[in-house]
Specification:
Helix 1 (about 15-30) crosses helix 10 (about 290-305), helix 6 (about 160-175) packs across helix 7 and helix 11 crosses helix 12 (about 340-355). By secondary structure, the chain is an alpha/beta fold. It is globular, with a radius of gyration of 20 Å. A hairpin with a 6-residue loop joins strand 11 and strand 12 (about 270-275). Helices cover about 40% and strands about 20% of the residues. The chain has helices at about 15-30, 45-50, 55-65, 90-100, 120-125, 160-175, 190-205, 220-225, 240-255, 290-305, 310-325, 340-355, and strands at about 1-10, 35-40, 70-75, 105-110, 130-135, 145, 150-155, 180-185, 210-215, 235, 260-265, 270-275. It folds into 2 domains: about 1-105 and about 255-359, Isopropylmalate Dehydrogenase (3-Layer(aba) Sandwich); about 120-255, 3-Layer(aba) Sandwich (Isopropylmalate Dehydrogenase), CATH 3.40.718.10. Bound molecules: nicotinamide-adenine-dinucleotide, 3-isopropylmalic acid (IPM) and manganese (II) ion. Nicotinamide-adenine-dinucleotide binds near residues 73, 276 and 281. Its cofactor is Mg(2+); Mn(2+).
């Protein structure tokens, strides 16, 4: 197949992890007989520097026309003045909103070879397989904001329709897994959470009688996620809770550099990006973990291009590389780390070597 992939490297380690991932997609194309076209555009801080805005119209238009978007990360100290007129992060929010990508899938499956990198005891991690579905285009991120000399406000608003569509997407995914859905909110305090809880209960009761729904408050969820991670299958939650809980969930896997994501809407186009940020503390050193971005490329093949076998080939190659302890500095024992490029090369070798019949 021919596919047009818009590539948005962004800032910090973004260009490094994206540059490591494109050859992986090329290797898949060669192995399986596809042609992927890559069209690079600016987003985030680099777009502010070059065009004066974090999401130039040309970037959004290219993304709207593309089959899928692969993104690195945005932001960094250079653009973080609290009084700045524009911020890199606004570009990311605007492209998610502009493409209508309301459901952000963030899977966590600790790999046996990396359990030692997690601060959580290994016996709690075996068999953990959690999919967080984070609402991505509503809530406090997108409500009206005000700022005066004496105060500031961020409005948190959710509509029934916004809750219905993301809960429906999460329940559909639960149906293809273990049939268990946990909806996380703060219904003991927030009105938006009480609406969320009502709508989630109704959608699952009326449309997904085969899915078991449980509600959990976000504060105790933050605790249970670490104390009994095996209890969770699909977790659906609002925008900000999902942001925070998934960085926490990355510690089950052992590194933020292992968690991919897929941002999906009603159509085929999606944005695929690691859940982590631009990691300014390690940018430019060639040591960032590329696996989260490579695994995001696998999600791209699966969700936007419908290439399941190809997606599985990437996931198997990353898994094999982890088994072989091909670890970047975030996972490796001292003195044992490979570079970003070496980790990607290990994945490519395994894609090339893999018996297709077995993939
Ligand atoms: P971060 O996720 O960038 O980094 C947190 C920590 O994790 C750092 O110590 C970093 O070195 C480490 N880390 C992250 N990714 C890694 C990888 N692939 N390999 C090895 N280590 C990795 O979070 P932060 O430092 O709070 O934010 C930095 C900037 O990134 C901010 O400007 C923030 O707004 C932005 N950000 C962007 C995105 C995005 O583009 N989707 C996501 C989160 C944060
Ligand atoms: C993420 C990031 C973004 C978010 C920021 C950079 C806007 O933290 O993708 O998780 O909060 O959604
Ligand atoms: Mn985040």
């Amino acid at each position: 197949m021919h596919a047009n992939i818009v590539v948005l490297p962004g800032d910090g380690i973004g260009p490094e992890i994206v540059a490591a991932t494109l050859p992986v997609l090329e290797a898949v194309a060669a192995r399986f007989g596809h042609a992927f076209g890559f069209q690079e555009h600016d987003i985030g801080g680099i777009a502010i520097d070059r065009h004066g805005e974090p999401l130039p119209a040309a970037t959004l238009e290219a993304a709207q026309r593309a089959d899928a978007v692969l993104l690195g990360a945005v932001g960094g100290p250079k653009w973080s003045d609290p009084n700045a007129r524009v911020r890199p992060e606004q570009g990311l929010l605007a492209i998610r909103k502009g493409l209508g990508l309301f459901a952000n899938l963030r899977p966590t499956r600790p790999h046996p070879a990396a359990l030692g990198a997690s601060p959580i005891k290994s016996h709690l991690l075996e068999g953990v397989d959690i999919l967080v579905v984070r609402e991505l285009t509503g809530g406090i991120y997108f409500g009206d904001k005000t700022r005066s000399n004496s105060d500031a406000t961020d409005l948190c608003r959710y509509t029934v329709a916004e809750i219905e569509r993301v809960v429906r997407r999460a329940a559909e995914l639960a149906r293809t897994r273990r049939g268990h859905l946990t909806s996380v909110d703060k219904a003991n305090v927030l009105e938006t959470s009480r609406l969320w809880r009502d709508v989630a209960s109704r959608v699952v009761r009326e449309e997904f009688p085969d899915v078991t729904l449980e509600h959990q408050l976000v504060d105790s969820m933050a605790m249970h996620l670490l104390s009994r991670p095996r209890a969770y299958d699909v977790v659906v939650t609002e925008n900000m809770f999902g942001d925070i809980l998934t960085d926490e969930a990355s510690m089950l896997a052992g590194s933020l550099g292992l968690l991919p994501s897929a941002s999906l809407g009603a159509g085929k186009v999606g944005i695929y990006e690691p859940i982590h940020g631009s990691a300014p503390d390690i940018a430019g050193k060639g040591i960032a973990n590329p696996y989260a971005t490579i695994l995001s490329a696998a999600l791209l093949l699966r969700h936007s291009l419908g290439l399941e076998q190809e997606a599985a080939a990437i996931e198997a190659a990353v898994s094999d590389a982890l088994d072989a302890r091909v670890f970047t500095a975030d996972l490796a024992a001292p003195g044992q780390a490979v570079s970003t490029t070496q980790a990607a090369a290990a994945v490519i070798e395994r894609i090339q070597a893999r018996d297709l019949a077995a993939a």
